[in-house]
Specification:
Elements: E1 2-4, H1 14-26, H2 29-40, H3 48-53, H4 56-59, H5 65-75, H6 90-99, E2 107-108, H7 115-120, E3 124-128, E4 139-144, E5 147-150, E6 153-155, H8 157-169, E7 173-176, E8 194-201, E9 207-216, E10 232-236, E11 242-249, E12 252-256, H9 274-288, E13 294-302, E14 305-312, H10 318-324, H11 332-342, H12 346-351, E15 355-357
Antiparallel strand pairs: 1-15, 2-7, 3-4, 3-7, 4-5, 5-6, 8-9, 8-13, 9-10, 10-11, 11-12, 13-14
Helix pairs in contact: 1-11
Length: about 350
């Protein structure tokens, strides 16, 4: 995937001014001209879908997907090469989290364990390919009296083991599917709900929780809760309760106070184990802080308490801007971005690419 850094001659808010201003100040003339040309050609700023998702008032102080990715590439130097990035390589993530004693879903590594023996004690599993995002390629397999079933229907034990072994060899993970906390079972019927906690190192170099967004499954066959897969996302109010949920509907978004499938009320429902989930994200950032200033954590809200599902080196800002109704530049996260940009080494500014392929091994 290609990352483009398009820098316009003027910026809409103080965060973009700090980010683009640093590039203008430290890039050589050729890089500045190329980035300016990319901006003129419409390769930067807000996409058409983001303009439909976020109102003008948010976008004026906001951070677009295109700008966000290049910014995170600058702030999180340990992201590349992707093969060595524990927030992209799912096997590395599981290994590091397990070594640190962080709670993660029970899993099987076919290269180190007997997969057949592990499957014999499981009845509901999730298979996730590595180096993927937004729930792409995630599959669920359940075992009933007549055997295993997957996304395409019945599958034999031998076929399942072959598929999972191949997934493991490519860096994927095989995990037990965890039960949803009973308070949220009617609000996320198709997948484990996750609390997105965006943490950022503060002025003292300590992780701080800056943004929250709760993701709920709208139901359906896909075992994911990602917003762009047709699911729900919502903010958490100061009392720790669910706000109205947002869902994409055609080219627009709609606010829902009840779940579209179960009919269960959403607004006002207390988020279970909220403080523990935030504390887990902060603990995880301390483990993964080397080379990562900002991380987006997905914390599963299970019947047994919060569980760390994954960390993201390039956490999306669209959903947190949507649920909060505020652009990142006007938030605590925006203030910390500006702090780190001011203190960024000159050499890192100079090395920032105008265009870069996100290859696994580089």
């Amino acid at each position: 995937m290609l990352t483009l850094c398009a820098v316009p001659p003027q910026d809409d808010n103080s965060l973009l001014a700090a980010y683009h201003g640093g590039l203008r100040a430290h890039w050589p003339r050729g890089a500045r001209l190329l980035s300016h040309w990319l901006a003129i050609m419409g390769q930067g700023g807000w996409s058409a879908s983001e303009k439909l998702l976020l109102p003008d008032s948010v976008r004026r102080s906001g951070l677009s997907m295109r700008d966000r990715k290049a910014l995170h590439r600058l702030l999180n130097p340990a992201a590349f090469p992707l093969a060595a990035n524990p927030l992209k390589n799912k096997q590395l993530f599981a290994l590091k989290a397990q070594e640190a004693g962080l709670p993660i879903p029970p899993a099987c590594d076919p290269e180190a364990q007997d997969l057949a023996d592990w499957l014999a004690h499981e009845s509901d599993i999730i298979a996730k390919p590595s180096f993927r995002s937004k729930g792409q390629g995630v599959e669920r397999y359940t075992r009933k009296d007549d055997g295993w079933r997957g996304p395409s229907g019945a599958i034999s034990d031998m076929q399942l083991r072959a598929r999972l072994t191949a997934l493991g060899r490519k860096g994927g993970v095989i995990q037990r599917r965890l039960a949803t906390h009973e308070r949220l079972s009617d609000l996320s019927p198709g997948a484990l709900p996750t609390l997105r906690v965006v943490t950022c190192l503060n002025e003292d170099g300590l992780p701080e929780a800056c943004d929250l967004a709760l993701r709920l499954s709208a139901g359906g066959p896909r075992p994911v809760d990602n917003f762009n897969a047709g699911n729900l996302v919502l903010g958490v109010d100061s009392a720790g309760c669910c706000m109205a949920a947002w869902r994409q509907s055609g080219q627009a978004v709609v606010a829902l106070e009840r779940h579209p499938v179960s009919g269960a009320p959403i607004k006002g429902v207390p988020v279970p184990n909220l403080a523990d989930a935030i504390a887990l994200a902060l603990r995880a950032h301390r483990v993964f802080k080397d080379g990562f200033i900002v991380i987006g954590w997905d914390v599963g809200l299970t019947s047994g308490g919060p569980v760390l599902v994954e960390g993201n080196w390039n956490p999306g800002t669209d959903i947190v801007q949507l649920v909060s109704g505020r652009g990142v530049s006007d938030t605590r996260l925006g203030a910390l971005y500006r702090h780190h940009l001011v203190h960024l080494p000159v050499e890192r500014w100079r090395r920032a690419p105008v265009m870069a392929w996100d290859r696994r091994g580089r």
